[in-house]
Amino acid sequence: MASSTPRSRKRSPCTGRQLAFFFVSIPTLFYFGLKYDIAEVKWVANEIESDFLGTRCNVNTSSVVIANEPNTEPYLAEPVPLDYNFSAFEPLGGGRFAEYKDGGSSIVITDSLLSQSDNVARSRRVHVLNAMKHVWKNYKEHAYGKDELHPVSGKGTDNWGGMGTTLVDALDTLWIMGLKDEFNEGRDWVKNHLSHTLVGEVSTFETTIRSLGGLLSAYDLSDDTVFLKQAEYLAPRLLKAFDSPSGLPRGRVNLKTGKSHNSGNGHSYVLAEVASLQLEFRYMARATRKDEYATKAERVFDILKRITPRDGLMPINLKEKQNGEAYFSNNFVSFGGMGDSAYEYMLKTWLQGGQKEKKYRDMWDKAINGMHHNLLQKSNPNGLTYIADRSNGKVGHKMSHLTCFMGGALALGAYTDPDGMSSPRATRDFNTAKALAYTCYQMYARSATGLSPEYVVFSDCNDFEISKTEPSYMLRPEAVETFFYLNKLTGDPIYREWGWEVFQSIEKYCKTAYGYASLKNVDLPALYQIDKMESFFLAETLKYLYLLFDPDSEIDILNKVRHYRAVSL
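Predicted structure:
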């Protein structure tokens, strides 16, 4: 969910982040640029105390008041015209839709309401498709085959090893959106130009979820063996990272020499990086009939299961003793960067295996129980639900955007609970999923741009404040991923309304001549745009937005898991 902080996503259901895209992230799992660079470990450990313990209110700051009276009428919207002017959109502000704050809703979902919502969604779907076309046209003209297109300067760079990362990562999005000409051109590039033999050192995690996951996702959708053949060149090179004393995959691997190592503070392993490869490698094992891929990836969960603390919450760093025994090397627990996708992969690995491998579901349920008992918090004064961090037994009152994947994951876990959707555990998890979705929506709605910062700090009043150290918006997918899951599972059109607000803000504040840029500060739109557009914006953010507004999709989030960023059909 790399120089992207390990989400870790994060995104889905077939293999892993790409395959996991839909189910397992719709695995589009998750996750997403700025997620897991090992250097982030030191950053987390040294976070300023005010961010960790919570901040006091500025008496001059105006509070956001959430209305007490619930709305009992459905939220009806009009179809969006083709010539809609996004520049005229003004963010609508926070504090609305109070009935969703605690996971409830007073709106009755009727056939007529669903039909009306679907008609509106189709008119919005066109605009998300146009956004993808805008990006792809410029990527093709200015950076085709490069790892990234810079949306402000229009330059292309190879910052992920020179493996056409944006192209490969976005193949399934092209397919899902019906852009088959663009997909076929990408297929020809993969066949004739993609090479892994001369690539040097790369991130094991990021290359697995973006490149291997992208290839497997394209293969799963199209059944074109060109993609599987390329995956067969890449996967054995990545598998070399597992050749460590403990069997945990090292964070960096040289695709040319096979040498691997951990980097960063203390040369430690990162939880999300070691536990977010299973979907892709298990899918690879099945597709190639080579069990080694699955065996080495699954061993990681066996190791983690043996050393997991009693409450199921795992610290984000691990090391190994001289005898190869792995152990947790710090006490920092987070469902955000460097922790997040480890929990997501527990659930989605269980789903990928047809819900037959009980140990993965048990690990998920144990962790979610621990989260509810130790990390789940309510804000002051409005009682917004959030998942805090924990360090050395102390709760840190902040929540990152990466953590917003949990709304969708909890909903998926509840719907597939072995004890049934009406069981106390599933009911609890589903209510928490909806309450977290509302908090994540507020992280967007309360900023001047209607876009969410990297994280917020929960304070003594006003619920939360935008991070002073990371007020940027990085085009991340986790919130719209959750909106998509909840809309699919409940039919409630409110999640489409929230997603549409997010998309309008992206169009207004992030669109450039060449693509979509990140924002330096979500409360200061005039400050400047960041010349950065991670591949996950195409592979996940636009994909989830499109699917959110696509009532005609054959995606099935309950019956097929693919991988981190993929989709289930």
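Summary: Confidence is low (pLDDT under 50) at residues 1-53, 563-569.
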